[in-house]
Amino acid sequence: MDDQMTAPAGPVPEEVGQLYDRMTLLAADLLGDDTGHGYNAHLGYWDAPHSDLTYDEATDRLTDVLAGRLRIGAGSRLLDVGCGVGAPAVRIARLTGAEVTGIAVSREQVARADALAHTTGLRGQVSFRQADAMDLPFDDASFDAVLAIESMPHMPDRGRVLREMRRVLRPGGRTVLTDFHRRRSPTPTAHPLRRVMGSTTVPVDDYPAILRAAGLEFVEMLDITDETVPRSFAALAEQAKRMRLEAEDIAAQCYFNPQSVIDVDLLGYLLVVARRPRHD
What we know:
The chain is an alpha/beta fold. It has 9 helices and 7 strands.
């Protein structure tokens, strides 16, 4: 992955949406009926090196770690930016009692997320719509918190997205997100993720300034690479074997088996918390 600041062009929302339409349909074909119950399309989190959590349990654990930092409860409104097929939104709604609105640029993901809300009986509490994070279709100060799990690497302009998040947040409301950063100089194996997936990273030391420029107060930043990346990539590789992905399908390899196209040690993983100033 190239740093966003040095990349020749950012990801295009329409192209990202089409890519995730295809990956979502491919997941349904390869994973079968399990996808109907919802699944997490993000990394897992293991609190300790010898944790015995399965990959699925660890992805739920990451959702829980992020949810605890949102500071929301019954009566709160949460915006999930890049909601995938809806599993994190449904889980957080159950955990907190909050009303959750999820958005994605993928029409297929939104359709499946909406179906999940229906099958779980949460349609009145959880809703989904197709929308672009660069131009959020919501009123100012309409949410108590914003969540973005691994969606920032697909944004053409992180600063603009963060400004939109700040705009829709109520004063004092929190943004909780995860993002990738580059740990060392890229190798040729890094190129498919940038070229095929439209993904970028950001220099870790730049994040506080990016948040401030967007009008957000920096609260917390944790490098949780060790708790997430190595075991997640290994688990995805094992799953990919069972899925029998075609080696020449680089997009599928990037999505389902990232360590086949990029060095594991290249990517770092950040948990970032910011908030809209209380007296804004």
